[in-house]
Amino acid sequence: MKNTEQRSVRRTPVTEYQALMQDGELKPDADQASAVEALERLHHELAGYAPVDSQKNSWFARLFSRYHTIAEPPKGIYLYGGVGRGKSMLMDLFYGIAPVKIKRRVHFHEFMLDIHHHLKAWHSLSSQQRQQTVKELQNIQGRKIDLDDPMPAIGRQIASKATLLCFDELQVTDIADAMVVARLFSELFRQGVVVVATSNRQPDDLYKNGLNRHRFVPFIDRVKAEMEIVALNGPVDYRYDRLKGIDTYFYPVNENTTAALSAAFFRLTDRSVEDRDKVPSGELIVQGRKLFVPKSARGVAVFSFKRLCANPLGPADYLAIARAYHTVIMVAIPEFTHENTSEATRFIHFIDALYEHGVKFLCSAAAPPELLYQSGNSGFEFERTASRLMEMQSEDYLTRGHGKSNTV
Question: Comparing 140 with 59, which gets the higher pLDDT?
């Protein structure tokens, strides 16, 4: 029986973490405990906090502003550490009970896709529309804004929908994203958004050895100033620990292998089998389209082969999945012949995307990897896929970090 009595009194990161410990769902971990203390600090500081702009928009706040001092935004948290140390779990724990009315938790890659969509929309505005937008922002924020700078407007859009913004797996890999991130985060901090982020890299290692990195360094300094830097480098890789002792490739496709995959999902997500009807779905935004994820929890996604490879999806969809989830489970991969060549091609692209991003892959299939491809025109390409499917079952692959390519 869960310790619900304690949680119903006053839910904070510390009480939630202690309850999970008492329930036997977590083991003692000094680094995790220190991270929880930092999250506890932020939890209490967020209570009653509202960004300056939102207070200015309130007639009540304007009326009494001379009698009240608007508090500075609390410091956010940058939580970094090795793979499987519990960063995402702690963020979920914090986010679920954060005392903030408008908040957002998003995978960093998905967030950047959204930002590029906003940039495209800004550049499609007429000169008159931009002038009107900038004029409104200047009136609200009391500062001069460059007519050609889209970031204040985009930052305002984000801030209006999220006082607390939680990012999972923050990473920067190219110069375009580096410059966008640097400008955008400056706007978010300026507009009072509180940021919590997880990353495999400490701030000083972000965009390491990247092109024109010196232009990105001021952003790193800003992160250090605006966020508490918390290391989570305990001795246990909990993600790999959950994978130990379970198979990742099951064949043939039958009730037994389907049940084995289901059990693996619940083990990987720390959920009870009795909660199977409560597992949430999810969605990704890919080039302005919504990609439905049937089951999604703690960075683990479940798809049927038919949904991903029998439908007209492409590399962009598979890349979005590979970036958003550290583990993917696929059900009912068939044998491939000349009759399902298109499906085979999509499957090849899908496995390439997962492999290049170090995504853990569990599946049920009609045959072992080397026997999946029976006939058709893609036999040579599928030899590489079969080889990768076998390598993805190895310990070396399973201990590789998410987002880390074997080819780098």
Answer: 140
Three-class HEC string of the chain: CCCHHHHHHCCCHHHHHHHHHHCCCCCCCHHHHHHHHHHHHHHHHHCCCCCHHHHHCCHHHHHHHHHCCCCCCCCEEEEECCCCCCHHHHHHHHHHHCCCCCEEEEEHHHHHHHHHHHHHHHHCCCHHHHHHHHHHHHHHHCCCCCCCCCHHHHHHHHHCCCCEEEEECCCCCCHHHHHHHHHHHHHHHHCCCEEEEEECCCHHHCCCCCCCHHHCHHHHHHHHHHEEEEECCCCCCHHHHHHCCCCCEECCCCHHHHHHHHHHHHHHCCCCHHHHHHCCCEEEEECCEEEEECEEECCEEEEEHHHHHCCCCCHHHHHHHHHHCCEEEEEEECCECHHHHHHHHHHHHHHHHHHHCCCEEEEEECCCHHHCECCCCCHHHHHHHHHHHHHCCCHHHHCCCCCCCCCC
Give the dihedral sign, CA 386/392/393/394.
positive
pLDDT band for 9, please (50, 70, 90 cuts): low
- Residue 68: the pLDDT is 37
List of domains in the chain: 4-231 (3.40.50.300), 238-398 (3.40.50)
**pLDDT (tens digit per residue) in 52-88:** 554 444 433 444 333 333 468 999 999 998 776 788 8
* Cβ-proximal residues to 190 (8 Å cutoff; 6+ apart), any chain: 155
Tell me what percent of the residues of the chain surpass a pLDDT of 70.
Answer: 86
**What gap in Å lies between CA 405 and CA 354, rounded to an integer?**
9
The pLDDT of residue 103 is above 80: yes
Residues 331-359 have pLDDT tens digits of: 999 999 999 999 999 999 999 999 988 89
